[in-house]
Amino acid sequence: MASAPTFWHRCKSLKLPWRKQWLCGQDLAGNTFWEFVNPLAPNRPRRIVRYSKSTHNGDVILTPAWLQWLRHTRERGPTVHEQQVEVQRQENVKVLAQRADERWREKESFLDKPKDTGQELPLPTKPLDKGGYERPVGSSSAPDGVRNVVGTQEEVVETADKASQSRAKEKQTKDKSPWETHRGTPSQGWQPEAWTPGKSARR
């Protein structure tokens, strides 16, 4: 009984002159793949798949190798041995992926809540860095070679006064009319005089 399907497959796969279709292979699920003579393109035969009768059409899953053959991307279909090797490779990949997931679960994640060890962490009582230069006790000025970035109090006040004066000058400049810059021309203050008619001589 085991040799009957093999003999049938060999007979159907023979490309005899009177045949218009022939068998090209089958997958592990029992689906058969066929080629037809294409009268419009003799060098490019048609390729189809006939599903197994024991499997519903909605449950049929074709392997990528046979899909490539149906789309003429692959010249020859995969053999039964190649398909078995591919299935074994997929099983090995699943096992390796499961082991990798287990190793990741064993490692502690930064998102997990820290474990309670029973020891309280000491609270910081003094900042480690104040963010500026700290003068030594008893010195009124900074040592040689070191100067405060902000400056002394007098320098700060002087800088603030200069800034306020510059802002006031800018405000005055903005408030002035743009026409004031053109004053001072000879005809700027000219006004017409009153007209007085002259006396005409009698004839």
Explain how this protein is built.
This protein has a three-stranded antiparallel sheet. The chain has four helices and three strands. It is mainly α and 203 residues long. The protein is elongated, with a radius of gyration of 50 Å. The relative contact order is 0.05. The mean pLDDT is 78.
Instruction: Please list the strands of the largest sheet in the order they lie side by side.
Output: 1-2-3
Structural class, by secondary structure, is mainly alpha
Would you identify the regions where 5 or more consecutive residues have pLDDT less than 50? none
Name the helicity range.
Answer: 25-40%
Shape: elongated
Strand content: 5-15%
Major beta-sheet overview: 3 strands, antiparallel
In summary, what is this structure?
The protein is mainly α and 203 residues long. The chain has helices at 3-12, 64-70, 80-106, 153-175; strands spanning 21-26, 32-36, 46-50. The protein is built from 4 helices and 3 strands.
Topology:
Blueprint: H1 3-12, E1 21-26, E2 32-36, E3 46-50, H2 64-70, H3 80-106, H4 153-175
Antiparallel strand pairs: 1-2, 2-3
Name the descriptors.
3 strands; elongated; mainly alpha; 4 helices; single chain; 203 residues
